[in-house]
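Amino Acid Chain and Its Fold in Token Form
===========================================
Purpose: to set a sequence beside its fold so the mapping can be learned.
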Amino acid sequence: LLPTKVEAFTGQRVVAVSAGARHSLALTADGAVWSWGAGADGCLGHGDQQRQSLPTKVEALAAQRVIAVSAGCNHNLAITADGAVWSWGSGLFGQLGHGDQPSQLLPKKVEGLAGQRAIAVSAGSAHNLALTADGAVWSWGEGEFGQLGHGDEQSQPLPKNIEGLAVQCVVAVSAGARHSLAIIADGSVWSWGFGGLGQLGHGDQQIQLLPKKIEAFAGQRVVAVSAGGGHSLAITADGAVWSWGYGASGNLGHGD
């Protein structure tokens, strides 16, 4: 019930963490990835579906230097130092980006991004966003609510460039359960996907099939965003936190 140090990391320097639905990832300074929790569909990356109650190094990535990780509901993404993206776990909606739907018990390189240099990834419930060094955004996986940003509600088993952001230089992305957020170099925020809980920030509850600027942030410079299950958060350059979307559990922080 209280924060407790994970003693298994004694002697390691952890530089990043990511929490999935029922599993966790940690990245250590030596570029190694560690996972623990539920192992269904191979989401821990150890070649099996066993539960791990202690952090265990993902040996399949031992020859790689990983620089970023993101845990989705039941799948994961990692970026290696060469800019390649790797995925593992459930592939039910094509969220692994390999052109098919089988689960992957071990990390596998996403060949659909070959030739691109990924600098950030975000795993949502069953869809993903990848930001490449040229400021482009790629998406794949479940698309039922337009969360891929391609103007339709089709799922994509392979990474596809979001043309609606092609004239923008994107600097950060975040994938939620069924919606997506992006920050543009000018500090504006764009959102798309399922908006039934107001999590897109456009003042309505409509689905947005294409990225759309959140006009409520006019005059603000946003520096970080995070898309949750049905709500969203942003930090502006003055250090303020903004929230919108589903608030029935008090998750917006407004006292109601």
Q: What stands out?
A: The two ends are 23 Å apart (CA to CA). DSSP finds no helices and 19 strands in the chain.
